[in-house]
Amino acid sequence: MAEAKPINDRLISEFDFASEVIYGIRNIRKQKNIAFKDAIGFSVINNEKVSTSFDAVIAKLGNLETIDYVQDAVEGALTFRVKSNEYFIPMEGSIDVEAEIKKLSEELSYTEGFLKSVKKKLSNERFVAGAPEQVIAGERKKEADALAKIETLKSSLDSLK
Fold first, then answer.
1. How are strands ordered across the β-sheet holding 43-45?
2. Is this structure's pTM higher than 0.90?
3. CATH number for the 4-90 domain, one of 3.30.110, 3.30.2010, 2.60.40, 3.30.2320?
4. pLDDT tens digits, residue range 30-69?
5. Contact (CB, 8 A) for 65 and 41
6. Alpha-carbon distances, residue 6 vs 1, 3, 9, 30 (angstroms)
7. Check: CATH 1.10.287 for 97-160?
8. Tens digit of each residue's pLDDT (9 = 90 or more) over 68-94
């Protein structure tokens, strides 16, 4: 009976990992408006050497056509990570690339404008001198968040072009 515990722990760990992969797939489907009824392609760089025992579950719950194990990044694909594993969902046929580029470009433009207004506020000496510290900290957080979002949007746009 003492042998069963490590097997159970390993299965629980593999299940938790598979759950995170399914979450990543569903998150991308939701963000990119990819209908769940549409089966999609899926590729994996398996740096973690994760067991394939939950592949059938992942394929079913993610509505995947196939799960391909690859050595190199897949060009022109949406991507996410779980630990050091990298996962790719090809965009061909899944989304309207031109519409997605337009949407991301508009969002990038808006975020850059927002960042400009936050920087203007933070460069105003009267504002900085008179505002409570928590307000200034909030503005600095807005600045950092906007910079991070701009970087992500630019990366997404680059992968689409």
1. 68-69, 43-45, 85-90, 77-82
2. no
3. 3.30.2320
4. 887 787 888 888 899 888 788 888 899 899 999 898 898 9
5. yes
6. 10, 6, 5, 36
7. yes
8. 899 888 877 878 888 878 888 887 655
